[in-house]
DNA sequence: GTCACTAACTGACCGACAGTCATTTTTAAA
DNA sequence: TTTAAAAATGACTGTCGGTCAGTTAGTGAC
């Protein structure tokens, strides 16, 4: 009998419905201002029901982060399958990351909030948080892989430790995307507007800077002639 | 009569007392878990009194951030007075920043939380937040200045726009310090521990990477031979 | 010394909200 | 139709940020 499966499916659907509602409310007014009652109302359920699907408000929020992190990773892991030099892959990873931030400022905002959750226990016991962490780790693996490819194809300076370089690049990219994000969300961050600096030029120069730092002569030549590819 | 001044002084002292208490409570259990009652108790005052000195909990928290930002800036603005090449100044600015994060993880944590406060209005009307923003801007100015010096003394590639480069470097440094910070505070961030990468090596390589990206041949030579100075 | 006035302080109280649980409603197998 | 389990409900509880009417302490005038 398919009753069991149907029920499981419905349960999963309801769960998604709740996350949908939570996104709408939390994205529009922020986590602190969003109330469980309002989310319940938006989901056309009672508050109590929310607690049948999520342990608490934080868990529900982390489920949103999980969604975002899945979305981001689904884009990132396409890149490694393409036929490019390692250096190009690195550049594309960075661009993909920035595009994600631009297109999904709400998810990125959620990521930033997520990182500020101090309570380790709460996150330790959360399946959703576990998935987020795994995705993060996975993204790092892709980056390391791209660097190794670059070191083999001679586009990236192989005097660095690829894992360490991946961590550094990831951190720097985070810094840059955060900047862009803050400007975009109007985050009391007039700094960039005071100086009139446009984001895409900023990001281009960032990639050039670190690109120059890690590229070999060969990689540098390819890259300097053209923002993207060049080979076929 | 000095009564007025004495009173003003006492009022200021009381304000500081409250911030002291707030730091103790908030640093130990986090902003959300800290209650105004507990802060009041620690300050040996009643809750009501807290609200005579601070508009609300957020304002009190921002006052903590203000302290931290003043402390950070007091260290940063010493560097520009020293007699060094521009590239060395940049390196020292970065190191100072990292040292601050290492020595004052609580303040840095507060900074991170501060940036997540979305409500622009709340921050717009806050004097303390205004000071924080000014300090941030000031730090950026110092960085730009150091870059200009480096471009003049020939240690830094002058094909970049100094202001833009300053923004990029600042963002990257934030990314790196955040990484270090998260590891330090045990922030459910096992990533770095999984790979065994030590922070100082990480930071050294970061500086080398961006250093290589922006240094001229001359600057690169000076820097590569010795982490710090070389001239007298 | 004491009176009058003000500034500083207090803590009981309020409203809002996260989270609970006894009760009701729905579902589906017997 | 009966019945038992599963799902959903919403009134209720405890906590906490913020308020405010009332109290206390400090100051200057006489």
List key phrases describing it.
homodimer; 232 residues; mainly alpha; 0% strand; disordered C terminus; DNA-binding
Walkthrough of the structure:
The structure is a homodimer of 232-residue chains. Chain A is mainly α and 232 residues long. The first copy, chain A, has twelve helices and no strands. Chain A has helices spanning 3-29, 36-42, 47-53, 57-79, 86-103, 105-116, 120-124, 127-152, 162-184, 191-194, 199-214, 217-225. The longest helix of chain A has 27 residues, at 3-29. In chain A, 42% of the residues are buried. At the A-B interface, helix 6, helix 7, helix 8, helix 9 and helix 10 of A face helix 6, helix 7, helix 8, helix 9 and helix 10 of B. Chain B binds a DNA duplex (30 and 30 nucleotides) through residues 3, 7, 11, 14, 35-37, 45-49, 51-52, 56-57.
Number of helices of chain A: 12
Q: What gyration radius of chain A follows from the Cα positions, in whole Å?
A: 21 Å
Strand content of chain A: under 5%
User: What percent of residues of chain A adopt helix (DSSP H or I)?
Assistant: over 70%
What is the makeup of the main sheet of chain A? none
